[in-house]
Amino acid sequence: MVTNKELKYVNAMRYFGLKSIQEAQGGHVGMTMSAAPITYTLFTKFININHKDGKWINRDRFVLSGGHGSMSVYPILHFAGLLKKEDLKDFKTEDSKTPGHPEFEYDKDNFIDASTGPLGQGFAMGVGMAIAQKFLEEKTSEKFPDLFTHYTYVVVGDGDLQEGITYEATAIAGRLELNKLIVLHDSNAFQLDSAVNHVSVENLKMRFESNNWFYIKTSNNPDDIHDAIKKAQKSGKPSFIEVTTIIAEGLSTQSSFKGHHGMVTQEDLDKFNKHYVTNFTDWEVDKDVYNHFNKSVHERGLDEYKKWESKFNLYKSNNPKDFKEIESWINNDINFEEIFDKVKFENNNLATRIYIKDLISNLNLSVKNTLSLGVDVSSSTQISISNNSFLDGGHSLFLGIREFAMSAISNGINLHGGLKVIGGTFLVFADYMKSAIRLGAMMKLPNIFAFTHDTYQVGGDGPTHQPYDQIPMLRSIENVNVHRPCDEIETKVALIEAYNSKRDTNILILTRQNLESFESKRSIVEIKKGAYSLIDCSNPDYVIAASGSEVGLAKKVANAFKNTRVVSVPCLDKLSHWKEKELENLFKANIALITIEASADYKWLTIHQKNQKNLHIGAYGFGKSMDGDILYKQKGFDFENIVEKIKKL
Known about the structure:
Elements: H1 4-24, H2 29-34, H3 36-46, E1 61-64, H4 74-79, H5 85-89, H6 121-140, E2 152-156, H7 158-162, H8 164-176, E3 181-187, H9 204-209, E4 214-218, H10 222-233, E5 239-244, H11 266-276, H12 287-318, H13 320-331, H14 336-341, H15 352-361, H16 363-366, E6 370-374, H17 378-381, E7 396-398, H18 403-416, E8 420-426, H19 430-442, E9 448-452, H20 470-475, E10 480-483, H21 488-500, E11 505-509, H22 524-528, E12 532-535, E13 542-546, H23 551-558, E14 564-568, H24 580-587, E15 592-596, E16 613-617, H25 628-634, H26 639-648
Parallel strand pairs: 1-2, 2-3, 3-5, 4-5, 6-7, 6-8, 8-9, 9-11, 10-11, 13-14, 13-15, 15-16
Antiparallel strand pairs: 12-14
């Protein structure tokens, strides 16, 4: 049975959580109380972290998928010496180390492994972390055993499991047999508006077992949780532990949806002390609490780190040549420009999706820590590093038709570290992925996505597959660079930037239709700036700027006018960082600036120049199921149409 002391430690966590919510004048009381025995057991008995290096590569990963329950974690970090008491008092305030939902810090060791809050995504990011662990362990176990032995633990609430992304991620984890992934369910039976049984009759045991998971149900006694985790670790499968808990236990809102979120009064704290037979006052707890967490979290984790560090140094000294490669994975310091520069394209005037195939297939032989994610359209998008599956020791992971899970899994892999991953699908299906792309950008993760089939020229598949409104959505997200290359050279430059990125998401928009290849001797530096003169002239009467599949059209239109500069804009996002004089030097024209792109993005207007005529030709409506080239022209992307509009200026 659970000891009185263990109850004391769990209740100290709960009490400080309630005090923090009281200070903030509101918060998620329910999970703060009900998840405490779960997080206590994990952090004091299982999770190994290193106080001096919060991003130690072999630490156990912890994801609080039900991010609103952050106060079931922050008190542990405080008692273990990783947060100050003032940090708890600053819960949900500006620049606080204890935001309302956990926030991953790219440049800091705040001991949060993932930003969570959008329910369900933490579950899928945990799957991504477990994929990264399995991949790295399998790639290194022969020469360097025990380098990547950690577990990924995810705590979910009832709401998490109702999000569709968890179904996608569950199926993937079961298929991949991610035996070091353990999900614990704070099953407190209530959510914000209702009891769970009002909205769900699902049998969780059947759900997870049918997807090749180990399932076990247990009480909220830390001893029982401990035993369940031990069984899960021996199962050889991903594991789901349903922990029966009580929402807002001991408070007036106990066992009610009203216990999910609310205020905490002094009366609530008095009820808490009476129910749990404690006498906590103000912000004080016994020193024994601090000593316990210091020993069971800090010292225990440090001991494990020292053991691992000894192996690390031994491997490094005994086999420095091979181990140098492993270190480059861990430190993310591979120079991909050297790798992609070696690629020579055998043909030109092709669709840009073909070029990316040539580029990333080169990774199959040259870089062992790369992985491509496919959602059952890889044969069309060409986003596949190798024909061999991850399950067979290859570099391609086939996820089925699960776009949302793919993008969240990519987040998890990047959060884990040690791998470079690229995912892709058709541009129109970026809609499925937007929430995870946004979350990854918020965490400053170097995600790479390639979206193909970029315009109305998709044709006969109809308006459901013809994108026009996705590019502005993607460009609107902070820390995201959207590249729309016009040929093989720009595609190579975009991919180099994407793979060398340390903190920005890079998205490549690629074509299915063939495009004209331009002069290969172009300045890579100029291309990387985001815009450059493809066909130059001094003091131009007209400047015609375009991206991707419209650059060839811009060149053709320019031939109808004298003294015209053609500007290729492979990355419009970067122009927001240009100085006004730089923009003027490139885009200022004596008569008019014309911009062309087959999307609904009005961001182009930000480069239009003052005191001159400007014309933008964009895409502003659904297409039709018909020949793509004819539709493209009907929508205004036609030589005669554009020439006529320019003449009217």
